[in-house]
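Form 7-S
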Amino acid sequence: MQWEWSIDGWIVLAGVLSACSCALVGNFLVLRKLSLMGDAISHAVLPGLAIAFLISHSRAAGPMFIGAVIVGVLTAFLTQVITRHGKVEHGAAMGVVFSILFALGLVLIRQAADHVDLDPGCVLYGDILAVGLDAFEGTFPKTVVNLILVMAANLLFVGLFYKELRICAFDPDLATSRGIPANVMHYALMIMVAVTTVANFEAVGSILVIAMLIVPAVTAHLLTDRLGVMILLSLIAAAMSAIFGHIVAMFGPGWLGFDATVNTSAMMAVIAGVLLLLTVLLSPEHGVFGRAYHRLVLSTRIIAQDALGWLYRRSEAGQPVVALTELETVIGRTLRARFALRRLRQRGLVYASAGNDLRLTDKGRIEAERLVGSHRLWESYLAEHFALDTDHLHEPAHRMEHFITPELREDLQADVPDATTDPHGKPIPSTPRDDD
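Output:
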């Protein structure tokens, strides 16, 4: 199989337009926790399509869009009615509505297939390769024209109502209080989702359109918490899914030594899923490895601070030098504890002699005073405002001391200005500013 730009270029363009148009409105479905609504509409529009076919006896774009939009809005409306008046959870209401409409649609499509030129498989799975055949015959692919129009409409819709969509996505009640009709924006979004879904039937089919509606947006949401950046990243993920989906569909079986063909639309969804999986694993903030790394860094920092605090308290008790084995009984002999102690040495906070005796350096004493001072200030605050017994103060203060910021420490000092000792009678060390 050989790449032909005159054919494959059009297929890739159609795939990119299809995926990006879905991802554009899909961002707001994800943010509003309406991911299933995209699935519901993509399935529920089938009876609208079938009725349009039965009435018009053709696959003309006009009747298709009208039928799909009517049923799409009906899906959203029925879901709202069942949720509000039936006191049913929103996801369950969507499941009820789209299951019934989808089943009705399959029955009607089967009926329509006996009277009009309708391929149920095309509706369900798409036929993006037909775009390349149209281009091969020298005609401008009609599917590409439709996708360009839908992409332009979605860009215009998001561009004109970006502020309204953003506020409605995060707080519909706030939007209403500011004079933004949240319900109108909701149904406008549902109309755009329905139109986008129908326009993508020819490219990716009603079964696969949900992948492009949701997966790129979820992928982007794992990478950023800013809406503008999220939309941009979702478009990049959608375009990559389309491009690499077609490439892998064409050449993937050959790379693996198989003489077989792979559906391009299905492979687009697979690539989108692969990108999501990689993001789930590798996202710096929300990924599995990223979160594991942050937990490792946090736990190591806590162990290191526990070691500093213990060495300081031993120094207060008249033992400025302690053996490594004695410290290990406190922080443990784990690999993480050894790494924490190594970091203390590298930062010049702890000095270790040739005999593995440990003591705080001047720099380490300043860090330890800041930590222990925060601990004892928190104990004083708890004792004054919560009247806790002295034997119940150490544990909560020990957990909190690792997260007291300089600003919070200043607030504590202002709240207990006369505290020079903690409730146990131990002096509260001075806590110099971080820039001193």
